[in-house]
């Protein structure tokens, strides 16, 4: 007998895993007597205690039966043949039809922090020490009940701080009671889709638009109706007249993702009117409105109409960092209790210490200071990117206006140019996000979504320089 290590940390773990595997695959016949622990230890040249630990565990788990006075025997288990190919060996066989359909639209996330990663803030400039100090302080002070299951919709101090911030800077009409803290905007979209729409209902989405919200709607069994976005933002007048009336309308009014345009006042009014006419809920995703460089943001849609059913969705992923997993919903008073209950059941509340630290971070003015600093940094990074790309723009590469946000959009002439550039980028280690992947309909436009916020000057210069050379070579064939 040889003892394969099988990656176990201890010898007894390796012996346990090996014997269990042999029992599960039938290599050790059910009912067969096992050698004594002394003999096993001798044959394997390991300590008897090591053998006893492994055997005791097998007995405790029911793989081996101990008959006092007679010894140890392999249990007679009705186990499926372990090593034969089964449904667990390929994801295809394991996934439900709904799971497969959802995954067909879930791109593989590139988690390497590449130069043009869209939507990634300046992680290098996050005030970590300040944040750590607050976290430590609130960890020490945390009341015991914060360690238990919660159902308050988040820490009160955070809801209050957020409410002041949203009222002042985004003209959102709210009281702290209307806020539900979530683990990011994504969780907010999922709750909305599950609680306010039924499978088969339709959701109007922006085309091109944000894949995260689309995935949440798909997972809830909703039919997506892509609504074209032009220079004024989403245009409800262009929804086909025979389209099913929507239960939900999703929009990024402050800074359309990924086109980067602001929803005009005329379109805001048109959308509010559409939502009212169809009795639909408007989902206002205000993910990065803090980063405007030329003009202050327009007031929120939520604050524009008292009558319309608008849910305001916010996130700390862009203003702080995505791994924080904190976001929020501003709900009409009638919905707060049902949402809180469903959220506590489906997702569980948590991170109360982090929430308290965040409330403190906001109250002390650190939040406003960080945003103001990031606004300057991002504006500078965008300027650097534009300068680096200047040789290409001089020859016809068209870039979006960039009045706001964390990325620029480069339009390309053809789908084949987009594809070739993305492939060349992958080979050269410069990952590029194709604009076409933000479309769900059959008329995707070619382009590149170039995030700049998360990269310092040197990285932008290096990656931008590569892009200019690649674009010139592919376009002119030189
Ligand atoms: C349009 C849009 N909404 C929301 C989010 C933030 O989502 P979360 O709070 O789940 O990180 C993002 C992040 O990429 C986004 O691009």
TrEMBL record:
Keywords for the protein's UniProt record, in alphabetical order: Aminotransferase, DNA-binding, Pyridoxal phosphate, Transcription, Transcription regulation, Transferase
GO molecular function term, any single one: DNA binding
Pfam families documented for this protein: Aminotran_1_2, GntR
Keyword DNA-binding: yes
CDD domains, per database record: AAT_like, WHTH_GntR
PROSITE patterns (alphabetical): HTH_GNTR
InterPro entries (UniProt xref): Aminotransferase_I/II_large, HTH_trans_reg/aminotransferase, PyrdxlP-dep_Trfase, PyrdxlP-dep_Trfase_major, Tscrpt_reg_HTH_GntR, WH-like_DNA-bd_sf, WH_DNA-bd_sf
SMART domains listed in its UniProt record: HTH_GNTR
Family: In the C-terminal section; belongs to the class-I pyridoxal-phosphate-dependent aminotransferase family.
Name of the protein in question: PLP-dependent aminotransferase family protein
Organism of origin: Kushneria phosphatilytica
Lineage: Bacteria, Pseudomonadati, Pseudomonadota, Gammaproteobacteria, Oceanospirillales
């Amino acid at each position: 007998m040889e003892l394969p290590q099988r990656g176990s940390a201890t010898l007894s773990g390796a012996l346990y895993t090996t014997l269990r595997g042999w029992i599960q695959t039938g290599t050790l016949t059910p009912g067969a007597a096992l050698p004594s622990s002394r003999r096993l230890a001798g044959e394997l040249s390991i300590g008897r205690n090591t053998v006893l630990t492994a055997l005791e565990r097998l007995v405790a788990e029911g793989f081996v039966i101990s008959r006092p006075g007679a010894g140890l025997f392999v249990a007679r288990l009705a186990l499926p043949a372990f090593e034969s190919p089964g449904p667990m060996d390929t994801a295809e066989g394991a996934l439900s039809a709904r799971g497969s359909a959802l995954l067909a639209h879930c791109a593989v996330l590139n988690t390497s922090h590449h130069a043009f990663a869209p939507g990634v803030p300046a992680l290098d400039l996050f005030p970590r020490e300040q944040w750590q100090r607050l976290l430590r302080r609130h960890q020490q002070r945390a009341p015991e009940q914060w360690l238990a299951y919660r159902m308050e919709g988040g820490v009160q101090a955070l809801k209050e701080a957020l409410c002041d911030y949203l009222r002042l800077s985004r003209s959102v009409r709210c009281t702290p009671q209307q806020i539900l803290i979530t683990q990011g905007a994504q969780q907010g979209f999922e709750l909305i889709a599950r609680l306010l729409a039924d499978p088969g209902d339709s959701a109007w989405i922006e085309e091109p638009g944000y894949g995260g919200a689309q995935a949440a709607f798909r997972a809830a069994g909703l039919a997506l109706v892509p609504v074209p976005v032009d220079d004024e933002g989403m245009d409800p007048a262009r929804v086909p007249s025979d389209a099913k009336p929507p239960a939900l309308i999703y929009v990024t009014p402050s800074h359309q993702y990924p086109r980067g345009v602001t929803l005009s006042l005329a379109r805001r009014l048109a959308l509010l009117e559409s939502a009212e006419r169809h009795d639909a809920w408007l989902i206002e995703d205000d993910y990065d409105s803090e980063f405007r460089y030329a003009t202050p943001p327009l007031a929120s849609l939520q604050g524009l109409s008292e009558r319309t059913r608008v849910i305001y969705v916010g996130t700390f992923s862009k203003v702080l960092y995505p791994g924080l997993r904190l976001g929020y919903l501003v709900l009409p008073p009638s919905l707060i209790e049902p949402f809180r209950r469903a959220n506590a059941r489906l997702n569980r509340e948590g991170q109360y210490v982090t929430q308290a630290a965040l409330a403190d971070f906001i109250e002390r003015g650190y939040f406003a200071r960080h945003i103001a600093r990031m606004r300057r940094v991002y504006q500078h990074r965008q300027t650097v990117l534009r300068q680096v790309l200047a040789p290409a723009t001089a020859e016809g590469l068209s870039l979006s206006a960039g009045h706001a946000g964390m990325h620029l959009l480069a339009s390309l002439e053809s789908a084949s140019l987009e594809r070739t550039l993305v492939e060349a980028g992958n080979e050269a280690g410069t990952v590029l996000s194709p604009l076409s992947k933000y479309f769900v309909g059959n008329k995707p436009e070619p382009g590149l979504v170039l995030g700049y916020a998360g990269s310092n000057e040197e990285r932008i210069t290096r990656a931008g320089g590569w892009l200019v050379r690649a674009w010139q070579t592919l376009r002119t064939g030189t």
